[in-house]
Amino acid sequence: MHAYRTHHCGALRATDADSTARLSGWVHRKRDHGGLLFIDLRDHYGMTQCVVAQGSPVLKLLEELRPESVITVTGDVVPREAGTVNAKLPTGAIELRVREVEVQSAAEVLPIQVAGDAEFPEELRLRYRFLDLRRDRQHRNLMLRSQVISSIRRRMIDQGFTEFQTPILTASSPEGARDFLVPARLHPGKFYALPQAPQQFKQLCMVAGFDRYFQIAPCFRDEASRADRSPGEFYQLDFEMSFVTQEDVFAAIEPVLAGVFEEFADWTGTKRAVTPAPFPRIPYQQAMLEYGSDKPDLRNPIKITDVSAHFAGGGFGLFAKVTASGGVVRAIPAPGAAGRPRSFFDGLNEWARAEGQGGLGYIAWDADGAKGPIAKNLEADRVAAIAAACGLGAGDAVFFVANKAADAAKFSGAVRNRVGRDLGLLEENAYRFCWVTDFPMYERNEDTGQIEFSHNPFSMPQGGLEALNSMDPLDIKAFQYDIVCNGIELSSGAIRNHRPDIMIRAFEIAGYPAEEVEHRFGGMLNAFRYGAPPHGGSAPGIDRIVMLIADEPAIREVILFPMNQQAEDLMMGAPARVPPERLKELHIKLDLPPVKGAKPG
What we know:
It contains 18 helices and 24 strands. The longest helix has 23 residues. The chain is 30% helix and 23% strand. It has 601 residues and is α+β, with helices and mostly antiparallel strands. It is globular and about 95 Å long. The mean pLDDT is 94.
C-alpha cells in the first residue's frame, strides 16, 4: 500500500465499500457525537468523512489534534447508514472507519478559520494567504483561473496562433503608467524596466515573420490598485497578427472569448447568456454620447440623448445659459420611474450633490402630463420634444446633466449606471460584449495644453501620413479598439503603425522630436526599415476575465498571491529594505524623503 494514499479525498464511492483505503489530507472539521468522532478529511480533490469509534486506540490522538493538521488515515470503507447519506458530497454515500493514524504535521491555533464562511479582514487574509487559499471559494477561483487559461491556450492554438515568450528585462516604454526599474549591476547608472506589456516585442515577432503570435504574458505597472486592477503585476492574453485589418482581429479573438465565457457560463451555478459573435461595434464618440463611457455596460438598456437644442434659448434659464456658453445638456431616461415616490428623486439629487454636481434635474410624466421643476419652467412644446427624442411617455421620467461636453458625458454615464441599478433594469445572468472603436489618436492635456496620445502610441492613424500632415490632431481617429464586457474593459488593441515615417510624424505631433523617438524606440524603428508587414492585435486581461466568470467584485479574489492596495506583499514582506553592501554593489545611494513626525537631527 502506498505510504500516503490509495485514493484522494474526493474519490471513494459506494462501489468501494468493503475495501481498505488510505487517505491523506487536512483535518477540515471535527464533530464529537458521544461515542463517535467524525472527521471531515480534505485534500485538493474533495472531502471524505472519517469515523472513529469509542475505545479506538487512535481516538485520543485525533481528539487532541487541531483543525488543519495534516494526517494519514487507514481504514475500512463502509456505506453510510440510511438517512445519513450526504447528497451534496461526491463521497457522501460512504465513510472511512479509521484503524490507523499518522500525524504528518500538527497545526497551531489558526489565525483565520478555513471551515465555514466567516469573513476576515483583507490584511489578515493576505498575510496568511496560504490558509485563505484552502477555503473552498478561493480554491475554486484559482482552479477556475487555471482552467480558463488552459481553454484560452487551446483555442488560440486552434486559431493558428503560436506561443512565444518575450523578455522580462527590457527597456522603458511609454504605456501610460510608471515602470518598475531594475538596476543593472554590470552597467552602473543604467536600469532595465519590467515590461508594462510586450508591445514592442510582439510587433517585432510580426517583423520576424511569425504571422500569429500569442502568450499568457506577465505585465508590470507601478500604479494604484483598483477593484478591477491589481497593483504591480497582472497577466494578459497578448496576441498579434500580420496582414490583417481591424475586422480580421475581431474575427480571430471573438470565438476565443465567446467560447471561454460559454464554456464556464454556469460556473457560479446559474447559466449566463453570452453575446454571440460578431460583437456589436460602437464608435467612441457614439459610446460617450449614448452611454457616457468608453466602457459601456450593455446589460443596461438606457441610452443617453443629447437634448441641448431643446433647452437652447428656452425658458429654463440655467440650462439655456449652459448651452449658450458652449455646454451641452444630456438626458438620461428612467423608464417606469414616474410612479416612484418623491424620495427616489430626492435621493438621486442628494447623490449627485455628493458627487460634486449641482444636483439632478428631472421631468416625470403621469396621466396628467409633465411634472417637476424643469417642466414648470420649460415650454410645453420643448418638453414634448424631449419626450419624443428619448422615447418616453406616461409613467416614465428623465434626468438631465448640463455641463461642458466631456464633464457632461462622464457624469451622465454615472447617472445611467445608477438609474439602471436603482430601477432594476440590468439584464441578469448575462455577459454582454461590445467593441468600442475609432478612438481619437490624440487628446489635449487640460493642465499643460499639450497634445498627447490618447490611447496606444503605436497605433496607425486613420488616413495615415496624409491625415497627420493635413488634419487637426484632435480630429484624427486611430485604428484603436477596446473590447468591453459588462462595463469592464478587457483589453485595448490596435492596428499598428508599421511605417517609420508615419511613426516619427505621429510622435512629433505628441511632442517627441525625431531624435528622441530614434533613441527610445530605435530597436523597433530599425526593424521596420527592413520590411514590416501591416499588423495588429490586442491583449485581453486574464485576471479580469476570471473575475467576471467567477462573479467576484475584486480582482484580488482570483489571483494566487495578490498584493494589498498599497502594493505590499504582506505574506513575504515585500517590498523590503536591502543591506547597504548590496546597494553599493549596485552603485545606488538612497535619497529618502524625511519621515513624518521625526525631529531634526
